[in-house]
Amino acid sequence: MKLIYTHENRIMALNIRNVLINHGFDVALNNEFASSASGGLAPFDTWPEVWLLKDDDFHNAKKIIESISYNSIQAAWECKKCQEENDESFDYCWKCHEENE
């Protein structure tokens, strides 16, 4: 077994586990609920961990993890009506409610 991923956020570790499982890797999740022990342990020691069951899968699994973009940069858009800058995730201007075209 090899540790492939750890993160303080349980959801992030679960996501990586699910991605690896969907790509056919055998994995185990450790420390899923260990955060309650953080008073007696260092917080880092309670982070959820994703472990590969087969050491030979490490490099291929690592490539998959690295291909996931957690910080996708989205282009902002300027409202044509009020010139307010909006995130790409908005379909309507947050200020004047004009639709993005």
TrEMBL record:
Single Gene Ontology MF annotation: zinc ion binding
Entry-linked InterPro entries: DUF2007 (IPR018551), Znf_RanBP2 (IPR001876)
Domain of life from the UniProt record: Bacteria
Keyword Metal-binding: yes
Record's keyword terms, sorted: Metal-binding, Zinc, Zinc-finger
Boundaries of every RanBP2-type domain copy: 77-96
Residues annotated as signal peptide: none
Pfam family, one: DUF2007
Name of the protein in its database record: RanBP2-type domain-containing protein
Source species: Candidatus Pseudothioglobus singularis PS1
Lineage of origin: Bacteria, Pseudomonadati, Pseudomonadota, Gammaproteobacteria, Candidatus Pseudothioglobaceae
